[in-house]
Amino acid sequence: MPNFTPHLQLEKPTPEDFYDVEALNKNWDKIDEELPKRVPQTRTINKKPLSADVTLTGEDIKVTGSDETTIHTRLSEITNPNLLDNWYFANPVNQRGKISYTGTGYSIDRWKIIASPASLTLTDSGATLTRNDGNQWILNEQLDMTYLAELKGKHLSASALTTTCLVTLDVPSAFTSEVSVVDPSGVCLWVNVGGSVLVGTTGPDVTVIAVKLELGSQQTLAHLENGKWVLNEIPDYGEQLRRCQRYFVRNDNAAALSGCAYAPNEFIINAPIPTMRSVPAISNVSCNGMITQSGKTIPASTLSFAVLRSGASGCVIKATSTQIADIGPAIAMDFSADFVADL
Fold this sequence. Notes:
single chain, mainly beta, 6-stranded antiparallel sheet, 4 helices, 40% strand
């Protein structure tokens, strides 16, 4: 006598039974009849019916049961480190303090206007670049040489977010060849062999919100949200200021700095500034003179200044006067200056 399975009552012949095709067919008929009952046709997973094979992707799976965001969307918001400094133009580090910059030279920190008479104007939305019939490449950030040695030949991605579009540029072998793109909107993006990232426009004004250079072939500057490009992150302003002050420091506190007269017409002044990438040049000095220990004032008009050395504790400035002073402690009154180590 055959045995039967407990759920579908399928016939299981014993070793003594002869092979019975009819019994086998009855088993198949039972399976066919019961299968739709066991997997209801109306059941779905992520709105896909279970009556057929189902392939789920990151666009189908929610992050959690209570969060409607898909894994695909969440992954698109993950961001790589930005290799550029001061890249968020809606709130940039701007130690030089102007709202508008025209002609060649540094503008907001680390970014240099290279076309004349092009201009950069800061707005609440970002930095508006105006070509004025000059070179289409307007704004440039030069990477530090130590960076270039580490990045040369690596696969990078550059991107620029404007108020109208996102422009991306694949850089398969960094700083070994010129790579550029001109978007239909007129926005230009270029990574050159010298280690510069350049942004510009072929004609119409363009307002740049942010620029990014990162490792890998995919941009992580922004993602689409309801049809609009949205930044994946807003940078920490204090960290950006620290990075920028490796290259430029505007010390405009008009402070009294301690020092000493170590020779009849030579002074040493200690200026507490952040650590810079190299010994800076000093410019735009404002000072109300040196006061010696005897109370004698050495007029600012008689003084010239140069940086002797700099480090973690600030920099040492040498001031030379055309007048004779008392040797000993001295104070530089209302001292302000720019310290420049720009590339």
